[in-house]
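During the no-cost extension, the postdoctoral fellow (Dr. R.K.) reprocessed legacy sequence entries with the updated structure-token encoder. One reprocessed record is reproduced below for audit purposes.
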Amino acid sequence: MGDTAREVLYCGVCTMPPEYCEFSGTQNKCKEWLLDNHEDVYVQLYGDVEGVTEKVAQVAIEGDSPTAPEGGRSGRTFVKDKSAKLEAKLERENQKKQSSRVIVKRVERTKRKSVTIVHGLEVFDVDLKKAAKMFANRFACGSSVAKNNQNQDEIVVQGDFSDDLHDLILAQWPQVPEDNIDLVEETKKKKTNN
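Re-encoded structure tokens follow.
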């Protein structure tokens, strides 16, 4: 067994070896860094610079060609490059976050008892168990994560805390836009005896 130390080069952008930069999601930035700082390793991994630029120029977006079928998928574009796919996926996730709603609903159980249900926080990368525990500590009540009829997780807080929860969500999680929070009140209809 040899006692020789091996020198390993790490990327300055993603902090992984250059062979694994393609899995980090920042491949273009990693390539630029590698080309600027270690051109010999860049040539070894990606070939010469002119060949790469020619290949990048050849990457085309399908669907924009004049031979695309009229009744086919002409409204959608398909990108062959992995980094462009990743950017498109991140853009779709961002649009989904902006269009999703957080619903704070007050539900009346009996005459004087009510529960407050918070639904939709998981879309904004909020840990529901930690949020439920924080609500329970803040309002001195019972709070838990439960599944609703659609088999989606929601936080059930015992008591009427809808206005307080609205303010607390905005203060605690700034990534949740105020326009995306809806306050709903659900009451039971009284039975009439004839």
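Residues 60-64 have pLDDT under 50 and may be disordered. The CA atoms of residues 145 and 155 lie 5 Å apart. The remaining legacy entries will be reprocessed before the final report is submitted.
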